[in-house]
Amino acid sequence: MKRIGVFVCSCGSNIEGAVDVCKVVEAMSKEPYVVYAANCKYMCSSSGQELIGKAAAEYELTGIAVCSCSPRMHEATFRKAAASAGLNPYKVEIANIREQCSWVHKDTAEATGKAITLAKAAVSKLCRDEELYPQSFPVTKRALVIGGGIAGIQTAEDISNAGYKVDIVEKKPSIGGKMAMLDKTFPTLDCSACILTPKTVDISHNENVRIFSYSEVESVSGYVGNFTVKIRRKARYVKEDLCTGCGLCAEKCPTKNVPNEFDLGLGSRSAIYIPFAQAVPKVAVIDPDSCRMLKDGKCGLCSRVCGAKAIDYSQKDEITEEKYGAIAVATGIDPIDVTPFDEYSYKNSKDVITALELERILNAAGPTNGRLVRLSDGIRPKTVVFISCVGSRCTEEDERGKTYCSKICCMYTAKQAILIKEKYPDTDIYVFYIDVRAPGKNFDEFYRRAAEKYGVKYIKGMVGKVCDENGVLTVKAADLINNEQMMIGADLVVLAAAVEPDKTAKALASKLNASIDGNGFFNEAHPKLRPVESPTAGVYLSGACSGPKDIPETVAQASAAAAKIIGLLSKNTLESDPCTAHADELKCSGCSLCANVCPYNAITYIEKEFRMPDKTVKIRRVASVNAAVCRGCGACTVACNNGAMDLHGFSREQILAEVDSICS
Amino acid sequence: MQLNGYKPKIVAFCCNWCSYAGADLAGSSRFTYPDNVKIIRVPCSCRVDPVFILRAFGGGADGVMICGCHPGDCHYTSGNYHTRRRMKLLFSMLDYLGIEKERMKLIWISASEGEKFASAATDFMNTVARLGENRRLGDLRCKSKTEQN
Ligand SMILES: Cc1cc2nc3c(=O)[nH]c(=O)nc-3n(C[C@H](O)[C@H](O)[C@H](O)COP(=O)(O)OP(=O)(O)OC[C@H]3O[C@@H](n4cnc5c(N)ncnc54)[C@H](O)[C@@H]3O)c2cc1C
Ligand code: SF4
Ligand code: SF4
């Protein structure tokens, strides 16, 4: 027998001011199944909650309807109160008679009438509430970090310091990301390698951390706390555990002059190579496209010179399967392809380069050993022109670029200008900009130092064209402040190319069931309040994969993601919200309509035995909802033509009862 | 609120994350709207089965609002896209059943659009009041009542 208690809150004068609460109590006490109705000044106060407890005991209540403020305010409070009164916390319904009644209707008769209607609807829903119990499931105490840039390294380091195991999957042969390629970093000008290398070395010696370099995520299944991930370990034709990183193989390899990816093709490497001197892991890798042995079966020199017997030409890609409780995405950013910007002559002239290429040139370990020279003739440039916002802040119509601001370019342009001026003070440097964006700690000071102390000529204006006439570059631009056209003869032009998400982001997002925005950056669960979580439970965002960021911001976010993951891994079990979908196996025809609309892939199919009236056994395919994955949106319930799918907490019967009650 | 002595009944389905919060904000900002509008909370607009809407019309509602997050903002990433597609079909079916299409409204209201909720509710109430009572299914009700007697 249903025995329902109705509690009408006055909320001081907030509700009472417009709603005649006594009338509501009176009307509700006459409703079927209602055995108790009372008013209280503040239901959310401890005395209000005690009232629930007392009434529940005295009247043996089976359900509780609270007429009060929005359930978004106090649903949790009243569920707790019901639980302490010995009721199932899901046998609670709230009629929102404050935000959606007393505060929006001035006329007392009207507001009171509506309050009664809402209370009746709540009671009729309550009569159909089931007892619900959260499911608990175990948590695998290991995290996966996808991407081994500074973000991935920081996240892994923090998680491992908390005592949990972490694996890093990095698609390149070594970790470090963009930061490993930079020369110095703004705004303090410390050397990038000097601050990064200790971290990469530490992480490689950390016993809680495994680094799967030259590897990619193949597939992901499961759910928060219980992911199963298949990782493709690409064949590097070198046994990682045997290679000592001596580099003899690369020295002896007869195939030289392969463009070096790490130097963006500005330098060359051999067919077997170690990407750069401080590479972690320091293990050689054979590029199968240029190796003579792998292409034609002739050579094998490296295997003969390798003292460690690490070379294995027969190596194949391997797939390993691992289990994780949480996943951090740290796939970072890449500069866009600037070749479509014909006006800057990047394609035609060797002396028009991107900012990342300049980082390699300025880097002492780079293709020119840190000497600033033109790539066309090896001569030091006397006049350098920087063009900012190449491909950033474009109009919607310009498909070559991005509409957003890449955020880091103004600052690294100032940095590169200062670095050149430090080394070669007689260089003439121009920076063309739309506006300089330097909103960070010591950022604006840094940019002003470039302009004021180092004499870098900042010119507000757009470059219309970079002309390349027989190797002589002329930059044609408009100076918007002096309102004049400019022609500058330049020896070197540097393009501050926009950054975009890694090319693999989209495919990875679909494997993880995480979402990306129109630009391909990973979406946050909430852009302001949950910036390091993806909308998919258990998948976190670290670093620049969710939007352009500089190193300090990247690291801060990476640590924030780690903190969230540590919070998750510290739990032995997780409890799921029981308001999930469930299929009635007798009605389900196994048609897959529901699985097609589920945004979380929560629905799978199982073979189920059914005993038929004639005693035969029939096996049918039926839908089965994984309660740990289902988020309770209800999309599947409407998709199901057979009425087999329903949602706990918002069942068909409950909602129809509310509809009927309101319409009657 | 009454118009010409008749008080339209309006059911509004609001998704928990955007529209219901928007309606709450209308309350906390004291943007008034007609008391005829009664809200039913659902997790997502995609939980609204066309059957619920037909049941409301059959039960005596003169208008039904379905409110969800803006496209692209769904808390469950894609729920409101399903809603949009499903309701398009229902609109054409309402026409076929002889229920004026204007009696049903699909509208996107975010958690920060309290004023929009209040004005949408007011506008919708005025539209429905102009249309008058929902006779088409009202007749059905009378019939079943006489049958009962
Ligand atoms: C020219 C230039 C100069 C800069 N100068 C500065 C500076 O002076 N100071 C500063 O603070 N910031 C600077 N930055 C910004 C800085 O590079 C970024 O803030 C930083 O690299 C972001 O780190 P991240 O780890 O998020 O991404 P990344 O460094 O891009 O690292 C991402 C890593 O993930 C890997 N990865 C990608 N996809 C996958 C996948 N699907 N599976 C496995 N692995 C994957 C990549 O190979 C890479 O190793 C500069 C950037 C540029 C372009
Ligand atoms: S309620 Fe939503 S999340 Fe749950 S199974 Fe159905 S569609 Fe998937
Ligand atoms: S849509 Fe309905 S009938 Fe089809 S598989 Fe899903 S639950 Fe079963």
Task: Write up this protein.
- The complex is a heterodimer of chains A (664) and B (149).
- With 664 residues, chain A is of the alpha/beta class.
- Chain A folds into five domains: 4-127, Rossmann fold (3-Layer(aba) Sandwich); 142-234 and 317-332 and 502-569, 3-Layer(bba) Sandwich (FAD/NAD(P)-binding domain); 248-305, no CATH class; 334-500, FAD/NAD(P)-binding domain; 581-648, Alpha-Beta Plaits (2-Layer Sandwich), CATH 3.30.70.
- In chain A, 28% of the residues lie in helices and 25% in strands.
- The two termini of chain A are 24 Å apart.
- The model of chain A has no long low-confidence stretch (mean pLDDT 95).
- Chain B is globular, with a radius of gyration of 15 Å.
- Chain B has one domain (10-148): Rossmann fold.
- Chain B is α/β, with parallel strands linked by helices and 149 residues long.
- Bound molecules: flavin-adenine dinucleotide (FAD) and iron/sulfur cluster (2 copies).
Summary tags:
heterodimer, A: 664 residues, alpha/beta, Rossmann fold, FAD/NAD(P)-binding domain, five-stranded parallel beta sheet, 18 helices, 34 strands, B: alpha/beta, disordered C terminus, binds flavin-adenine dinucleotide, binds iron/sulfur cluster
- Could you say which structural class the secondary elements and strand pairing of chain A correspond to? alpha/beta
Task: Give the rounded overall mean pLDDT of chain A.
Answer: 95
Q: Percent of residues of chain B in helical segments?
A: 40-55%
Outline the biggest β-sheet of chain A. 5 strands, parallel
Number of discrete domains of chain B? 1
Rg of chain A is: 32 Å
Which regions of chain B contain 5 or more consecutive residues with pLDDT less than 50?
Answer: 143-149
Distance between the amino and carboxyl termini of chain A? 24 Å
How many β-strand runs of chain A?
A: 34
Sheet with the most strands, sense and barrel status of chain B: 4 strands, parallel
The secondary structure category of chain B is alpha/beta
**Strand percent estimate of chain A:** 25-35%
